[in-house]
Amino acid sequence: MRKMIRGAAAFATAAAAVMALSGVADARPADPWAGCPDGAVCVYPQDQNPAVKPSLVFYSYGPHNLTNQYGRHWVLNNQYGGATASLCTGSGGTGCGSRIAQGTGVYADLTPINSITLYRP
Questions:
Q1: What is the pLDDT along the chain (121 residues), one digit of tens a residue?
Q2: Where does the UniProt annotation place the signal sequence (predicted)?
Q3: Spatial contact of 107 and 74, defined as CB atoms under 8 Å apart
């Protein structure tokens, strides 16, 4: 009788573990922030306030040159792991200003900005 009870207890424990793990497998990441995908830095169209749908999306680290970006735009850093970004007045990531921390954004005049640089954590 004890063997049967132990077997039933072991089965119940295993079944509970499988159910718990299957719940984790179904977990989904949070929705992208204002349409900016997880792991990206996004630039939104001029004067789109609040930010809804980005016009530019950058994923790779390093400088990204901008063209035809004038006036005020939201720039959101939706990277993770401590990655930062900065707005730069020169092309190729030169003349960069202070860094934009992950999970934050700036509403900036991009007229003098010629590139955005994404930095590894």
A1: 444 444 444 444 344 433 333 333 333 344 589 999 999 999 999 999 899 999 999 999 999 999 999 999 999 999 999 999 999 999 999 999 999 999 999 999 999 999 999 999 9
A2: 1-27
A3: yes
Give first-to-last CA distance, the chain, whole Å. 59
- Please compute, for residue 17, the number of CA atoms within 13 A of its CA located in the half-sphere on the CB side: 6
State how far the alpha carbon of 48 is from the alpha carbons of 1, 75, 105, 114, in Å. 71, 11, 14, 20
pTM for the full model? 0.74
Q: How far apart are CA 66 and CA 83, in angstroms?
A: 20
Q: Which value, to the nearest 10 degrees, does the dihedral of the CA atoms of residues 88, 91, 94, 95 take?
A: -40
- Tell me the C-alpha to C-alpha distance, in Å, between residue 62 and each of 57, 81, 88, 92: 13, 16, 12, 9
